[in-house]
Amino acid sequence: MITLLANRPAAAYAAQIEQFGQLAGLWNTHITYYPPDGSPASHATGAWEFGYALDGRAVIDVWQVPGRDTLAGAPRAADQECGLCVRIWDPGLQLWRFTFHGTAHGHLIHMYARQIDDEIVMEQAEGDDLVRWIFSGIRRESFHWRSQRSTGGGAHWRLEQRVRAERAGAAAAAGDLDQQ
Amino acid sequence: MGSAAAAGSQAAAAGARAPSPGLVEVVAAPSNLGLRPPAPGREPGAWRAPGVLLSEGLDRRLNATRIVELPRPSYESRAQPGTRIRNGITIREHALRLADAVASALAAPRFVVVAGGDCSILLGCLAGARRAGRCGLLHVDGHRDFYHPGNYDAGSRLGSAAGMDLALATGRGELLLTHWPVVGKPLVNDDDVIQIGDREPAETGPGSLDRPIARWPVQDVLRDGTAEVAGRALGHLRHQGLDRVWLHVDLDVLDHSELPAVDTPGSPGLTFDQLGQLLSPLIASGRVAGLGVTSYDPDLDPAGEYAPRIVDCLASALATLASPIAGKANT
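ok -> structure tokens follow
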């Protein structure tokens, strides 16, 4: 399947593609879930890998909870997620079109995304609610992501999930530097 | 730099220069995307309005120097993915095309008259006008058009953008139709909006305002007169320091006895004469950058009775711009 992936953004929309393209590579994730009933948060770890695709017109990623390192060669359980995200810059809409295809629970999610200031905001309308997935604090070695939901048309948002991502190998490299 | 951004830069370079009398451009925006289907399997006929108005001589009556006709977008009755707004994706695409046309006309500089179409065209009009900087909104409409997911049950039915255009323009609602290239969000600040002519007195319930905006409902216009309300609106613009506004005219501000051929007719409302008298001093003030006219549905006017009256009304309102020998605009 070598035609799926690409090494660089398409030249025509390179600046836009790089909004997500800068995330290309493998990341370790630390995930916190905030239940809607106010019960204590729960935690998990996973892996998130991004790459250019479709002649550089798209950025795709694979979201895994837990990551392969945690599985240590064991098969992934049926309810453990391994999902695919596809992001395509649409020049006619001046937006990203986004789909998430989950394999564990059959989730299929459509969203639209734009860079707003220093965040990339993805949104879908779901019934009465607006749901946003937001990338923030993007650095070479780390970024943050959060999922939030509004039942009031965007006036107020409730945090559902938060992710801290570190580039795989970055923590080890930082540890190496600390020891020098 | 893309064509949209290039047009924006041209417009920015042009600043808020007022066009000379006689320099009117008509943009035909044949949209029905923001309306409900009138019956299962049928499309609203508002998309035909620009063609009908041009056939009735709108461009000649306005002495238009240029006509731009946008392609008709495809209408879908079913939900599009990721949005609870009917035709939300297509509305954005059409709005961006319209924004390019408006920005280009304003940069010329020409006074632009956008012939809709349904009220969702407001988004493209403002997105284009805003590329040259701050631009207020005179929203002349029989309804507030303020539905957004915060004030109605968005899960129960698909939303119609023609009932949401003021909410979307002020940044309320889905990202899909509230965040725009060059401009960002919102297209217009609440404080830069004037609403004239709505007949919905309730301040609570679905579609209600969540904060005050400058507003003169139709009852005020009928009681105090068009000249008085136009004067108040211009006074508000001066107070806000707004030298430049977009004028949105939903023809459902007319009483249903004057114009029943709209999606949501109502009463009380204005007569054609009153509407012309209301718009004329606003346009003559020199503060109006362009005008969008919406909601006429030729399918509801099979005898073609109302199109000539609409054209007469617009020609009367725009007389100071349409005439090459018109006098200098006053403020």
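The radius of gyration of chain A is 17 Å.
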